[in-house]
Each structure stands twice: as C-alpha cells, then as structure tokens.
Write a structure and sequence with these properties.
The structure is a homodimer. Chain A has 14 helices and 31 strands. By secondary structure, chain A is of the alpha/beta class. In chain A, the strands form 8 sheets. The first copy, chain A, has a 5-stranded parallel β-sheet. Chain A has a 5-stranded parallel β-sheet with strand order 9-16-10-11-12, with helices on one face.
Chain lengths: 557, 557
C-alpha cells in the first residue's frame, strides 16, 4: 500500500496550471487536503476557446466550462473556493489570507505547500479614454459574456493588437457579421513571426474584409454617446461601436512580489526546474512564471496552455514523488493561429529575435505542397527553418499555408526538443501516402536545402540586388516571367534552355537566379556555378507574386 | 569554380530511388554522363498514386507521369533509355549489358559508377490457375491501365492481401462501383499493426460494404468463361470478375545476384551506410536493398518511396561529395493508410514483432480527441506506444482514428529518430489552438501514461480476467455500463461515487477497474491502490464497445 504523508495544499488560481496541479496531486495522494482559491466564478474553463464562442463557432457556452466546483469535488475531492482572492502570504507561518469577494470576509488558510497559478492579465495601458465600457479585454468567461452581449451584426469593431488573440477575435467578430479594423503597432501581424511569413496572413485578412492598420498604435480613445473614436499615433481615427484590446499580457505576480518571492526582469515569478519559487514551500506554474528557454541560454516566458498544464504536473510530482520527479525541461515557444482559410505556426526562435540577441544563425525558406502534388487538393505551404551555423542545430521554424501547418510545426517542435540538426531533418521518415504527405516531405526538403547551403553548394540571397552590375536571371517559363516580372532589370532564360544559353550571360559579372518557389533557381545556380559563374539563388522564390492558392509545383517550365 | 572528375554513370531503374539518384548526381556534377536504363516505358512515375487513378479519385493519368525522358533530358541532361533491360553486369570490365525490349538488340554500356534501383515486384505464387488474365497485380502505369480497362461498375472484385495496397485497392474499387471481397491470410487487416489497432479499420471496411475474409488464404484459382473462382484454404469459394493480388513484394535482385553481389537472407541487395554494394563501384537504393534498422539492432527492408528517394540521394552524395556525404541512418518503417473515413499509421516496431523477436518492451494505449474537445468536430483517436523497459526509449507507435493520424505518426517517427524516451513525450511542446490540438496532446498523454506505469503508479492489464476471484469494477456512468456491459461479472460503481463506496469491495481480493477510454479506470485504480487494494486498470478502456465515432471524452460521469 502506498503511503504519503497527508499534506495541506493551497492552490491560488484554478484554471490551466492550478487545475492540472491539483488533479495530479490528488492522483498522487488521496489523503492530502487540496483547496483551490479562484478569484473568478469559474474553475478549469477553456480559455483558449473564448474567441470561438464569441463568433458562434462554439455554440454552447457550457462547452467551455470544463469543470465546476461540484464536479471537481466529485471527481477529485478538491475544495474549491470561487470568487475568493488570495490577498497575502505569511510565509513564516505558512498561511495565506483569502478574501471572499461576495461577503468581503477574510480568513487565513494554512498550507504545507502553496501553488501559485495566478495567470496573466491583459494589458490595459493608461491611455486617455481607456475606461470607456465599450473597450474590452478577453481573459475569462465573464469577459466573453460581456463581449457577446455587446456585439451584433453590422457593428463596427476595432481590434487593437494583431497577436494570436487579436487575429482570432478579428476572424470571429467578422464571422458574427461585424466590420473589423485591426490595428498593430508593428508593421506586420503576429509579431513573433518574421515579416515575410506574416504576409500570407495579411492577405487572407484583407481578402476576408478585415481592414489592417499596421505600423500604427493607439494614442487615445474618445468616447461619445454613439461610438468610441480610436485615435491612432498616425493621426488616423477609427470609429467603433466596440474595441477589443489584445496587445499582450502581464503576469499577475503582485501577490508573489508582496510576499518577497523572487521575480524576473519582466515581473514573472522565478522558479527552478521543479517549479519551486525562491521559497521551497511555494511552487508556481503557468503564465505568471518564467522558465528556462529550451532552445538557447537564458530565460523565457511562454503564456500558453500547454506549458502551464505541464508545469502544474511537474510541481505535483516533485511534492509527492520526490527524487522520481522529472524536471520541467523549459519552454520552446510553440504557437499556431488559424485565420479564415490560413494557418501560421512558429516554434523556437525567429530571425528577428536572433538578430536582436546578436545570436549567429542561418536560414532557408522552402515551398512545397502539403501532400503529393498529383493527389487532388494539394495546397502550398512555406517553411522557414533557422539553425546554428557551427553545429547545425535547429533554432526555430515557421510555417504558413492552408493545410498541414500544425503537423509540420509539431514535427519541428519535436526536432528542436530533441536538439536535432538540419542534417537530421533530411532523414526523418515521415508518413507517406498520397492523401497525407509526399515521399520527400517539405520538412525533408528544408533539411536538404539547409545542407546544400552548409556544404557550399549554393549561396542564397533574400533580397534582389539593386547593383546593375549583377545579372538577374529569371528561369521561370516565359508566360509566368512576363505576367509577374521581378523588380528591376532581369533576363528570362527558362531553366530547360539555360545550358544552351550560357553565352547570353557575362561570366565576369555576378549572377542571381530566381524562379517561382526557389527550387528551379537553385537548380540554375548549380548549373551556373559549375560553369564558372559567381552565382547566388534568390531564396524562397517570387512566390509572393503568384496566387498563393496555386499549387507549389508548377507544370514543367 | 567547382571541379569534379567527369564520370560515366549508369542507373538501372528510373523510378523513385534511381530518379532521385540521377537528379542529385546532376546537381552535383554538370559534366558527368548519366544514363538511365528502365525496363518499362515510363520513368519517375508516381507509383503510390496508382490505386487512386483506378478509383477515379486522381482523374488525369498524366498527373502520375511525373517526368518523361524528354523532360529529364531538358531539366537534368539525362540520357533515358526506356523499354531497355539490364541483363548482365561485367564487374571486371565495369560494363552493363542492356537489351532493347523493342528491337531485341543488346549492347554494352561502360560505367565508372553503377546504381542499381530495380525495385520490387508483386508476389505471384505458383498456385493453380494463377495465369488467368483476370488476376492482376499493380506495380506500374501499364498494370494500372489494364485494371482500369478491366473494371466497371457492378463487377465483383476479390482483393487478396490486406496490406497497404490491398486496402487502398479495396477502397478505390468500391468507389468505382464494384463489389469487393478482401481476403487476408492473417486474422486482421494491415498485418504490420497490432490486432486491436486494426479493428477500427475492419469496422470501417465492413461499414462501407467491403466483405472481409480474415484468417483465410487463397488455395487456387479456377477460371471459367464467366468468372474466376477463388478457392480459399477454408473451403470457401469467392467468384470474381477480377482479382487483385496484393500479398507483398520481393526485391528484383536477380541481376545483382548473377553479378555476384552480396544479398541478404530474403534476397535484398546488401549495402553499406553510403548505399555501396559489396562492389564499391556499384551502389543500390530503394525497394531492392536492405538497410540498418534505425530502431533496434539488425537489418530491415522498407519498400516505401521515402526511404528509396533518400537512399538515392545519399549514394549520389557519396560519389561526388566524398567525406562530406552523410550516411543513410537506416529505416524506421513508417507507414500510413486511409480507408474511407479512417486512417491508421505505424512507425517503428509493433508489439507482435517485438514478441516474435523476444525483445523486452512495455506498452500503453491512450484515447483522446484529435483537437480540443470543446471545439466542434473533435474526433477520437487511439495511440499505442511501445518502449524499452530499461531505458524508456521509444520503440514504436501506432495511431488510428479519423483526423490528425498523420500528425501523430510524424511526431512519433521524429521522436524515434531522435532516440527519445517516453519521458520526453511528456514535454513535447506541440502547437495548440482549438482547431488544431489540445493543451495536452494525446502524444503528451501517452508519455504521462507510460511514466505512470514506469513509476509504479498503476498496473495495466490488456485482457479482462476470467478468474472469478477478481472483482471487475466498471466505473463508467450507469447508462453506459448498462448499454455496453463488459463480459463476465462486474460491479458498476461510477467513478464520482467510488470513494464513498469502497465498502462494497473486498480488500482481500484483487480488483480490475475499467471504463470507456482507460482514463477513469486509471483514476479509480489510483484511489483503490491508496486505499490498500491490489488493483490493475484495463488499458485503453472498453472503447471497442462504444460507437467509434463518439468523442473520446464523455460528459462527466
């Protein structure tokens, strides 16, 4: 018979990290007393689903209320105190002061172990007019209910912040019949992506009637009886019936700070690999903590449901399994978003983040279809991978397209967790049948392209040269080259005719090859390099100038 | 300027391995003479797509003819000789004798390096009546054309062999309006899968009108004017207008054998990690070779397009890049098949293969939905993982279900390639947004379940005990327990009432807990173990007894 010393455990916050912690703790010890203190009226709700109920895609609100205090009592024998706020921690006496938000009464709960899972709150900067009741943020079911009540077909919505939630909200409000204008301070949507990878999302938003104000921020709000005017930094004004503010979150770490627990530079609770704070009797998990970056040195904070759930589990394991507990390995930063018919995903570090950190990297971008091109329904996708120049180790990846985005991101997130190199990508043996994949999946192709670069078989450039001394050779078929010419001067030599037309090029001047998707230009660069030319291939091709819905393999040129 | 010594390369076989080899060789050396000798009239065709043209899902035949001799000349400057058969290799003189199948003339081609990519042919055992022209195998476009010409709506087809091609052919012939009877010597479809994982495929086949004769083989064929009678080992007779024979393939290694090259125990060409045969001037790739098993010690042969393509590339790299070439890391054995609305995938070793090899292993099976349960369209899937008991290293995985099968197989194939453990699965940071996944993906859940088992938190059983001394506790809700009772004696104690009803169970007798999907029974086993019971959980649950289309998470019991 298993025996654990019965403990008294208090959990602050009953959503992802806190609820996972409590459930795992109960699995490990039947006799421990577990009390969850939750500020809101709900526990363990599906916060990632909130936008989809607002748009009506998830119809029943009850689908989002995964558990209730009653079901947690029945299933897990948990004491759940909703609408109760933890207001102070007395670490010396190991007790936490809790205020009942309904009655206003406070009392003290003793603990042997305390779990802090307070989450993060939406940023709400102190701008003029910010208190207008028509300006919403979205964190919980009550926020969702307020937005549902405040929205109806034909209204004008302004969404400020084009991150994951901003895009989901834009899509869902448009789905509900509102007109939507999306404002983002940075010059692209989904700022974690590198800009070229965000372009397809932006075109999809525009194609679906979402207005974009990129590179512009909110200066102030001016509320009137009929609407809220959003005054942007540029001087532009957007009139709205309601505003969604989705410009980011900040960790809810005031309680931890007041209790003297160590915080990180951006206010996150500092924890060790078993989720222990600077007080060994207090654990923390979820959006309020910072963790080890699993890709590069240093710390990171990834406010996502997956890490929160798994951190909660690690903490419970450490309390009850002791030496057997496995540490939290850190967060990679994996995210995905769907906007209408498009998806974009990222895992690990982006080019802009590597540049900002002055970390050396190399990168390639490849295009292919999501399954065998000859099988009906093949849709193009674009994959960018980044790696460390010395070791070849993967540092990050981004994928955009129509189908199979989540699959490639998950494969690459697994490869990053395994500290695989781009060489390893070449020989992943992925599932191939025509409805599902290709004999050489785009992930393999990214490995091939990266190795070609590492082996010096090809030089890549990512911007077309302005120097007129450089010969730009467009190796696409003549119709495509004429319909979508590259900027500046170029000569069209379709690839199949290249070997016979080397005489048209000046061997004493550098050459850049370009094509639709980056593959034929690589082939051409190989031909030219072996014929004595100084040549580079335009990475990723002219894709942006063709219909993004066309298959990634064109008929033979 | 890059310089390679111009070589004279001959390639026998112009489909997956041979064509990839030739393309890569050309990329690496413009000045080498590359000649492809192909017995059939086509090169580089999409052989995995053949069944889908027969069923009409891929409409245009030309979609499958990826390249022609002319396009390979234009794009890659390859000399392609179709309808030419290599009949002898003179290794001492480094030349290969080729017969033109049209003219009957033979001549000799000199080589510096020879690539053997002959592929594998469908087995056609010497059974009585096997030569009936209505008995087809499927290897190339001509086989496909013959089957297209021989089939029309209302005909009766018998498919013999329920492997990947047999299932694809059954689906596609049914799609074309034929009635289909599928015969398999083993007692399940897709013999590489463990039997319980094949059950969903079998129900899907039956639901779509495919008749199944499992555990029965073909004894002889009796052709008459009107039909072919398939006499099975059991004595059963099936009358057919046509028969598809898809019982496996054998490597086309006669040429290699005659030339004295080393062959493996099942007739595959033996190669080293750079695809060199026992003659260093001769390379081989594709379905005809055996390679290192990437999971466990020993050799394997995986007749699939992915390995063939990548082996061809490795061989070309070794010829032209020398020391820079990266070895072929071996094959894992990853496969996937779609049958109507179901998919099943496998990577690595199955339980039956591990048992047969007397290799120690442990396994768990978990059920979950393919994306967040609260988001519309969640479909159940079942994931089985196998690992080495000592190290926890993953040895194999199988997935069946409706959506997202390929994603999980690819993640697990990547994890196996990385030599990850089941512990590593717990902390894969996979992409989560409601349309794509869950905060804890089923792959994470498999890691959790495996670790619980490794940590001794739960004992699993995979068959319900017949010993009446064992108490079987069904912890599902009463309606489900009554509608789908387990076989034998059991007591229904819905999980939420278990803690209050421990007195109903005899502490001196062992207990087995069961539920719908294996999760609640684990919860119950934890409660009972901590209350002094000798308890095991029925792994994977009673799933087979509920509608396989119902979501994997039932409402709270």
């Amino acid at each position: 018979m298993e025996q654990h010393r019965p403990l008294n455990i208090v959990v602050i916050g009953g959503v992802a990290g806190g609820a996972s912690f409590a459930a795992r703790a109960r699995r490990l010890c039947e006799s421990t007393r577990i009390t969850i203190v939750e500020r809101g009226p709900d526990v363990s709700f599906a916060n990632c689903g909130l936008p989809y109920h607002i748009g009506g895609e998830i119809q029943g609100r009850e689908a989002l209320a995964v558990q209730t205090p009653e079901s947690l009592k029945a299933l897990l024998n948990l004491e759940v105190r909703t609408r109760c706020e933890a207001v102070a921690i007395d670490r010396a006496a190991k007790r936490v002061q809790v205020r009942d938000l309904s009655s206003g009464e406070t009392n003290w709960l003793d603990y042997d172990k305390l779990m802090l899972a307070p989450g993060a709150s939406p940023l709400r900067p102190a701008l003029p007019g910010i208190d207008d009741p028509r300006i919403f943020t979205l964190r919980n079911l009550q926020d969702m209910d307020r937005i549902v009540a405040a929205t109806k077909e034909g209204m004008r919505a302004v969404v400020i912040g084009a991150g994951f939630i901003g895009l989901e909200m834009s899509e869902q409000l448009q789905r509900k019949g509102l007109s939507v204008q999306l404002v983002e301070l940075q010059s692209q949507v989904i700022p974690p992506l590198d800009a070229p990878m965000a372009a397809l999302l932006e075109s999809e938003l525009r194609n679906n009637g979402i207005g974009l104000d990129l590179g512009d921020g909110i200066a102030r709000f001016e509320g009137s009886e009929t609407h809220v005017r959003c005054q942007l930094n540029s001087g532009k004004a957007l009139d709205a019936d309601l505003v969604i503010l989705s410009i980011g979150v900040k960790p809810d770490s005031e309680l931890a700070q007041t209790a003297g627990l160590q915080l990180g530079p951006r206010g996150h609770i500092v924890v060790d690999e078993f989720q222990r704070t600077s007080d060994p009797a207090i654990y923390a998990a979820g959006d309020a903590v910072e963790t080890v970056d699993r890709v590069l040195e240093g710390k990171t904070a990834v406010p996502m449901g997956g890490p929160a759930n798994r951190q909660g589990r690690v903490a419970a394991d450490h309390i009850f399994l002791g030496e057997k507990a496995r540490p939290y390995p850190g967060s990679i930063g994996t995210g995905i978003v769907r906007v209408f018919g498009i998806a974009a995903g990222i895992t690990g570090w982006s080019e802009k983040r590597l540049l900002a950190a002055k970390t050396p990297y190399e990168t390639v971008t490849v295009n292919d279809n999501h399954h065998a091109s000859y099988y009906p329904g093949a849709k193009p996708l674009t994959l960018k991978v980044l790696w460390a120049p010395d070791s070849g180790r993967l540092l990050g990846a981004q994928v955009t397209g129509f189908e199979g985005i989540d699959k490639r991101i998950d494969v690459l997130a697994t490869a990053i967790a395994a500290r695989m190199t781009v060489e390893d990508l070449c020989h992943l043996e992925l599932a191939y049948a025509p409805p599902f994949g290709s004999a050489k999946d785009v992930v393999n192709l990214a490995g091939f392209a990266a190795c070609n670069r590492r082996d010096g078989l090809v030089r890549h450039i990512t911007e077309l040269p302005e120097d007129p001394a450089v010969q730009v050779v467009d190796v696409r078929g003549a119709p495509l080259a004429e319909a979508f010419p590259p900027p500046g001067r170029s000569v069209n030599i379709p690839f199949p005719t290249l070997r016979a037309n080397l005489g048209k090029l000046d061997r004493n001047r550098p050459v850049v090859t370009l094509c639709a998707f980056g593959k034929m230009s690589y082939f051409a660069a190989r031909v030219l390099a072996q014929n004595g030319f100084d040549v580079a291939s335009f990475s990723g091709g002219m894709k942006a100038n063709v219909d993004p819905r066309s298959p990634a393999k064109l008929p033979n040129p």
